[in-house]
UniProtKB/TrEMBL annotation:
Belongs to the TPP enzyme family. Residues 221-354 form the Thiamine pyrophosphate enzyme central domain. GO terms for biological process: inositol catabolic process; isoleucine biosynthetic process; L-valine biosynthetic process. Gene3D superfamilies: 3.40.50.970, TPP-binding domain. This is 3D-(3,5/4)-trihydroxycyclohexane-1,2-dione acylhydrolase (Decyclizing). Transmembrane segments: none annotated. The keyword Hydrolase applies. CDD domains: TPP_PYR_POX_like.
Amino acid sequence: MSETIRLTTAQALIKFLNYQYICYDGKEVSYIEGLFHIFGHGNVLSIGQALEENIGHLKSYSGKNEQGMAHTAIAYTKQNLCRKIFAISTSAGPGSANLITAAATAFANNIPILLLPSDTFSSRQPDPVLQQLEHYTNHTLSTNDAFQAVSRYWDRIHRPEQLMQALLHAFEIMTNPSTMGPTTICIPQDTAAEAFDYPIEFFDKRVHYIDRVSPSSREIDGIISMIRYSKLPVIIIGGGAKYSEAGDVLEKISLMCDIPLVETHAGKSTVISSFTHNLGGVGILGTSAANKIVQMSDLIIGLGTRYTDFVTASKTLFDIHHTAFINININRMQTYKLDGFQVVADAKSTIEAIIPLLVDYKSAFGSSIAVLRSSWEEEKSRLKVNNALDGITIKNHFSADVMQEYKTQLRTQLSQASVVLHLNDMLDHNAIVVGSAGSLPGDMQRLWSAKERNTFHLEYGYSCMGYEIAGALGAKLAEPSREVYALVGDGSFLMLHTELVTALQYHYKINIVLFNNAGYGCINNLQMDNGCISSGTEFRNIEDQIMNIDYAKIAEGYGLKSYQVTSIEALRYAVIDAKKADQSTLIEIKVLPKTMTDGYEGSWWNVGIAEVSHSHPVQQSYFSKVSHLSRAKKY
Ligand SMILES: Cc1ncc(C[n+]2csc(CCOP(=O)(O)OP(=O)(O)O)c2C)c(N)n1
Ligand SMILES: [Mg+2]
């Protein structure tokens, strides 16, 4: 008989979390950094009690919104290249329901996180308890069943001993690069407090090994012959390349073979932006240089990319009849896309394996890489000049009168694109920028120059509004010695910003750079681009007046050091002063709408446009969509 230890389910859970390690490239580190929680009915007397009894080395933080705190945890893990995670504990009912959006964010981005939503009573003795749904036809359903669609592993335990199997399954999924993502273990509140004699070996130190998967010789042969056959190969750097730290080998192969690099939102900052062969973001949020090179290309090598619509311009960016694909991905399903040659292997290991076999290979791009790069630099210089009212506005959607109205109401002339470029110059080279939704991801992806590796943090798998500020706290937890900046729109700020209080509470300094254009700017662009009138996307009151909200004052109320700026000079002062501050800061920048960057060549997006309408512009948009679709790959 093995020795046992009598613990509650919650105590066993906390004890187990203390003994999990991962080993990557021979480096062993503890895997669980800690636990975020919002206590309530369902977890305070079980998980809360277990933390009080013996927290071990885990850190414990109290969040302000379940979605927000889980987004903080996701950002922490993303910044740590998926090698360290947090667990999340929520109360039963609404506390758990609030977590679902974050679970989806983790799912879409393949980010591991351990979600522990409390559940209603297993015994059913007090049913219906406060916050229980009480289904009439299926008593086993609770709020937590909604996590099934957004979890890579989902379980509900009704007995303390089930915890052991559940945890082992969850940790296998989270530490397996091809399946990693959110795992959910729902724990009824009575089960969480019940005791069991756990075998002590369950709590032995466990090391989860993440070995790099090498390509097979068949796969290597296939890659080499396709590259040799190609004259114009291009590598798309995806998130998988970043997580595998493929920066050095990518620079090497790119220089050696003259293969240009382009980036997805998740892959950006795997290689720094000033690298000669890096042409930047590709697709809908792409630079003109990257999109042109991809359009010229006869072979796309997708390295750790999911080929989302934003990367492929809804499968129209490539010449579908003449472009071949090599899909290198740790996840086999991803390699099936676009009928590519499938390579199920680690990004870095694969590039490492092919470099010695291509020493005599050079693409036929010649000088075009440098020419495209320099014409993009010229475009950036054009955008940097702040002439918001003299021409650089999106497709003249707004009349001169409406632009003037914004200028008067917001008391600014600043162009967003210009601000982003200037801000980029003002920050430290190792500063981390975090973004997620609105028009800023487009500006960041196109314009931001990542000066060091892993300094660009864009959640654009789910593009969840409200991620930015919570995410900045997560990045700061991962990199406490660096300045971290959330680049956030006013709409996203309004959606969710309260983890800034958590940052203040635990003295983690984050900087919030809020771009106030008084509306859901990118959605306004989307509707007006497709023939609709501006409606429901500008922040106007019922008298049709533009709302000028003072976000700097709101920030001051929270206790942040805050600034409101309407000029580049004032921005410079604010950024310098904010760097000196010990506490968190918020810089509100009033920017004019329609002054973000627009799409460049090839950046078409397939969106649902009305097939029938009385509006001529809507009809026109629909016909244009049909014509684009005729050139798109169908699957
Ligand atoms: C949670 C969530 N709800 C809705 C959306 C759809 N959406 C994407 S961007 C956006 C507006 C963003 O406005 P803002 O943050 O002010 O950025 P701007 O486009 O003005 O730069 C909306 C509503 C979303 N991405 N996430
Ligand atoms: Mg806005």
